[in-house]
Amino acid sequence: MSTLESVIWHILGYSAIPVIILGGFLAVAAVSVGILSLWKDKAGD
Question: What is the DSSP secondary-structure string of the chain?
C-alpha cells in the first residue's frame, strides 16, 4: 500500500469514529423524543 493510500485510510477511519458516535446519539434522541411524544399524547386523552 502506498503512503497516499495509507493516509486516506487513516483519515477515513478516524473520521468514521465521530460520525458513528454522533449518529448513534441522534438516533437515540429521535427515538426518545418519539416515545415521549406518544406517551404525552396518550396521557392527554
Answer: --HHHHHHHHHHHHHHHHHHHHHHHHHHHHHHHHHHHHHHHHHH-
CA dist., res. 34 & res. 31, Å (int): 5
Question: What is the distance between the alpha carbons of residues 15 and 25, in angstroms, rounded to a whole number?
Answer: 16
Contacts of 18 (CB under 8 A, 6+ apart): none
40 or 20: whose pLDDT is higher? 20
pTM: 0.60
Q: Where are the domains of the chain?
A: 1-45
